[in-house]
Amino acid sequence: IPVDPFDLVIFGGTGDLARRKILPGLFRRFIAGQMPANARIIGAARSDMDSAGFRAMVAEAIAEFGGMESPPQAKLDAFLKQIHYVAIDARGEAGWAELQELMKGTDKIEAYYFSVAPALFGDLAERLQQWGMADKQARIVVEKPFGRDLETAQALNATLATYFDERQIYRIDHYLGKETVQNLMAVRFGNMLFEPLWNAQYVDHIQITVAETVGVGGRGEYYDKSGAMRDMVQNHLMQLLCLIAMEPPARFDPNAVRDEKLKVIRALDPVLPHHIIRGQYDADHDDAEGHPNYRDAVGDPRSKTESFIALKTQISNWRWSGTPFYLRTGKRMSARSSEITVVFKETPHSIFAEDAGQHRNVLSIRLQPNEGITLGVTIKEPGPGGMRLIDVPLDMTFSEALGEDAEQVDAYERLIMDVIRGNQTLFMRGDEVEAAWAWTDPIIQGWEARGDVPKFYDSGSDGTTEAFEMMRRDGREWRKVA
Ligand code: BG6
């Protein structure tokens, strides 16, 4: 079903994110029949090119990043007809009259995607207003990083609020657009089975791991100023934590959901220094491809930025008091694997012989790859060997359960369609982002004050030995990254 007619202006339309994610994603939505024939996508960037040049760039981006063997040519041509380009100067006057002319007099939905450095958000917002494009119907989409601490995030929110209402602002965290993340809400709030057990009384602990095999690649300059805490924990892992821990919202509507997420962030305990481990990847000594270590990759032999974090925190509220939440993320780890795991407590009493073994239910929610949800259930080992207990997985791997045809939608394309539909549920509200920084800031300030230096871990491993020790001290184990 097509969404309502729209014009989407992508500032930074020639940039990396636009080429890798936004434009190929829009093409897939076009093929799926979701893009109305009179919708337009308008690239706006500094590069001096015309619409024909931009269309060629879009076609290349689709070929390279579209994830399709060979994109159907007729569809591609039709899609490209809906694409335009304006060379624009975010801080100057060039291009604005042309954009204004293009956007004039349509009664379509107008969305402006700020896929540019955050330093330009304010300039773009101001220019849009000056040129009469920021009316109360317009929507703007902003990318992370949303500030680098509480103060800068507040300033950014204040600037945007000068020109737009909160209901017009769509702050992207692309983890919220991932299929399994939404499924987490369906599983929690669509079944009677889990919610009664979803609390400190029955849950031993929760783990969230987002492991990547890639290093910082060509993003060294940005990354070295951020580190894993700002790049991943403050946003993506925090959002996952919110969804796994929040109270059931009264309705599945944007503010009801976001109110509950905000309460989780506000109830987070401060993290004690010995409950957070920082790591930095060293080279992989068996690595034939010769990937550089972190410091070489960012070109600073003394960099103190972390590419790995493992931490333990707690949520001080009625539901979760006393339940540890362990979070871990890093680059150049052994596998690309994102998983949330709920480890339930042991049964209060075992009726079986001691050597039957005692087991725990483990619910694991896999974000990528092999998206799906698995519940480990204890049963009797089949056969005549007496009462011995084993764990078997109740597997809800989506591709198996729903068939290979189940439509795979990338996070970005889903989120952009939500912008057009005017649905903010999967976008961060300003107060959420600020609360997340308020929790993150003292941790980072602590490192800075102490001159903390991250420990090295080998590329291809699962982080520093200290991260494993932290778990061991608690009598627990990290899940295997696989
Ligand atoms: C981005 C981070 O937000 O998320 C990157 O800036 C990271 O450093 C990426 O690699 C991970 O996203 P995904 O969807 O590949 O897990």
UniProtKB/TrEMBL annotation:
GO molecular function, one term: glucose-6-phosphate dehydrogenase activity
Keywords: Carbohydrate metabolism, Glucose metabolism, NADP, Oxidoreductase
Chemical reaction(s) catalysed: D-glucose 6-phosphate + NADP(+) = 6-phospho-D-glucono-1,5-lactone + NADPH + H(+)
Lineage, uppermost ranks: Bacteria, Pseudomonadati, Pseudomonadota, Alphaproteobacteria, Rhodobacterales
Protein's gene: zwf
SUPFAM superfamilies in alphabetical order: Glyceraldehyde-3-phosphate dehydrogenase-like, C-terminal domain, NAD(P)-binding Rossmann-fold domains
Pathway this chain belongs to: Carbohydrate degradation; pentose phosphate pathway; D-ribulose 5-phosphate from D-glucose 6-phosphate (oxidative stage): step 1/3
Pfam families the UniProt entry points to: G6PD_C (PF02781), G6PD_N (PF00479)
Protein name per Swiss-Prot or TrEMBL: Glucose-6-phosphate 1-dehydrogenase
Record domain Glucose-6-phosphate dehydrogenase NAD-binding: where: 9-183
Family label: Belongs to the glucose-6-phosphate dehydrogenase family.
Domain of life: Bacteria
